[in-house]
Amino acid sequence: MSENRINRRNFLKNAVATGATVAGCAGAAGIFVSEKEATGLPLRPPGALPEGEFVARCIRCLRCVEACPNNAITSLDDSFGRSRQNTPAIKARRQACMLCNRIEGEYLKCTEACPSGALQLVRREPGAIQDQVKMGVAKIDLALCYSYNNWSCGACFRACPFPGQAMTLGLWERPEVNADACVGCGSCERACIRYPQAIRIQPEGVQPEKVPGTSYQNGLWDASPKKPLTLFSAEGD
Fold it and tell me: Which residues neighbour 153 within 8 Å (Cβ) at sequence distance 6 or greater?
């Protein structure tokens, strides 16, 4: 065997070892955290029944996936268990639920398409959405959020469909989440410019103590938000 081939083999072995070490360190640092590890439950589309009832009633037809105008709903693989395989879920970091904003129709498209009642019908009106939709709640990692670490950002606030209600801003654009008003659409998580994201949607039904990272909070600062860019247009517009 030539010296060049030996050197090439050693190079490849070292490269693999180095890559494994880097991946291991990244995993230990929490950079590569799966959705299941971060939340324990999948994020369901709007109007979903409680998780146990949802899984039992969903017939895996995936009509909601086809109906979603933002392509936010996907079919789950077996990462959350075989009982949840092929049920619909949203991966907010990839694509958030737009709550059918500026889409024609009386109801949220996915809830209108569901034939089994696993997704309850929800009118495409801000009041109805806030009353009926509780996909989850946004949680901010204060250790990662730029606005809590000597920078000013506010990207999550500007993406929120209910600014000033579900999310407000404090000093240096520090976001604060109102858990009672947050519907868990994931727009804030999708918009976060931090990698890994500093804000995640905690799906409905997840106990807060089960979410890793003790720095996850709803927020600590009094609200004094600037004039928001509201996604939902006022009646009559």
Answer: 145, 146, 147, 173, 193
